[in-house]
Structures are given as structure tokens and as C-alpha cells.
Amino acid sequence: MEDLIRSIYWERASHPSTLGILLVEKGQFALTPYDVIQTVLLEIVERGEKEMDIVHFSDGRRQIGLMTIDKETIRDWLFFGKNKKIINWIYSGKILFERNDFFHHLIKELQDFPFNDRKIRIGLEFCKLISSYLDGKRLYQKKNHLDAFNHVIRALHHLARLSIIEKGMHPELTVWDQMKQIDPEIFKLYEEFIRSEEPLEKRLELLFLASEYMIRSKTELGAAHIADILKQKAYWSVQELFEHPELKIYSIDLLILLEYLLDREYIELIVDEKKGKGDVSLALYRLKKEVF
């Protein structure tokens, strides 16, 4: 097995585009949903033909997975929470090869968690929090309590991750273990919700009341990123916001965030009669200066 691993990473390390190779064993944490692969070699390259490429090898007894990811993709995953288990791999995997201390620099950047990256990530989590919360509340009002339960759990996870990022840390897979130390209030809310013996309808009712308060208290923090962008000019069309490089990652949830901020009067809608077609005017968004 060691010979197979060695032959794979030696061959990959000889490529000039290879920045680093990390060894991750199944015993450390789950590698795949089915745990078929016992060992993963994570290779980071400067620029790959694809964002991610996976090859499986076997010596007849065990399987090894070689996962090749380009540098920009791994950064996207790490700093914007698109693949949460990768953070555990980077921190806990064994470095087999690195060019110019690649992994050491990456880990330091993760630990530093640059302020602007943190602000974007908080904005993303807040956006998803609002979306899950509103979906859950809508289902609750329709008496679809089990479906509402699923959305509320998702909303609590986004609230937890937002709080962790606020403290300058990256959310891990075991987010609630982190929350015990970081924010006992939210942890207690989550624990009481899932362990309470009250009827589900009653638990949901109480949680929506508590969540409403917590979301309001996080609004200025969660909306700080989009507020910074709105400050860049007086008015924005929704298309301009969707096309902004830093807002593209919000995807369709951006509309939900805009509606929420409109409802809470953090932003306002302006009708531009000079733009649009026929009798239909163009709607533009702007930040309310007295709020931010």
C-alpha cells in the first residue's frame, strides 16, 4: 500500500504545476458518503484542465483516490464554505509534498481569515439563513410542520455558521461542538428545539419567535457586504447587482435578501420613469444612508 501511494505522489509531484499533495486517511474522518475509499491523495495544482478530477487506484486490497483540484477552486471551497470537509482535510492531512510551502501558507491564510473574505462569507450565510427561515415559516403557516422542521434546522445551522465566522473562525463539520464554546445561547436554542418533548407545532412557534429576534440582531452584520457594494453608486438595477462579481455567489437567494432588506427598510426602491419600456418603469435599489 505504501509503495502504491509513493509511486502515485512521486509521479504527480514531478509535474511543475503541482503545488502540493496531502494524504488523508479514512481513520481520521469520513472521506466519502460510503467510505469505499480508504485513502485520499489531495493534489492542488496551479491550473487544471478541469476544476476537479478524481481517479481511483487499487492494489487488490485497498482503494486510493487521487483528487486533483486547481488552486482557485480549493480557495473557493475553503473561504466560501462550498465544501466543508475540505477544511478538516487541510488542517489534519499529512503533507507529502508542497512547493514553496504551499500548504503552510494556505493554512496561515485560513487561520488569519482575511476581513473581506469573512464579510462575504457572513453575507452568504445570512442570505441562506433568511431563505431557510422564510421557507420554514411559510410551511408552518400552511400546517406543513415536518417540512417546516427541516427548513428551521437548516436556518439554525446557517445562524450557527454565521456566529462562528463572526468570531473569525471557519465552521467545521461538527459545527455544534464549536457552538458550545462560541455561542451558548444559540446552542441552547438548537438543543432545546430538537430535544424538547413539546408537540412539534408548539416547538416551531417558540423557535420562530426566538429566531426573529436573533435574525434582527444580526441584520446589520449580515447585510454589511451588500451594503458596501450598494455604497459604490447611487442606484442599482437588480440585473447590475446579479452581475456584480462579489454578488454572483449569492445566486437566486440575492432576491430574497433584497426583499428582506426592503421590508426592514434598510434599502429602498426607486422608480426610474426615464428607463424601462412603454408604461413600465425600471425599479432601482439604493441604500438608506441613515441606516448604514
From TrEMBL:
Query: Mind telling me which Gene3D superfamilies this protein's record contains?
Result: Beta Polymerase, domain 2, Nucleotidyltransferases domain 2, Winged helix-like DNA-binding domain superfamily/Winged helix DNA-binding domain
InterPro entries reported in the protein's UniProt record: NT_sf, NTF-like, WH-like_DNA-bd_sf, YgxA-like_substrate-bd, YgxA_HTH
In what residue span(s) does the YgxA-like substrate binding domain sit?
119-218
Q: Which Pfam families would you find in this protein's record?
A: HTH_52 (PF18576), NTF-like (PF14540), YgxA-like_sub_bind (PF22339)
Q: What top-level branch of life does the organism fall under?
A: Bacteria
Q: Where is the Nucleotidyltransferase-like domain?
A: 1-118
First and last residue of the signal peptide: none
YgxA-like helix-turn-helix domain segment(s): 224-278
Q: What is this protein called?
A: Nucleotidyltransferase-like domain-containing protein
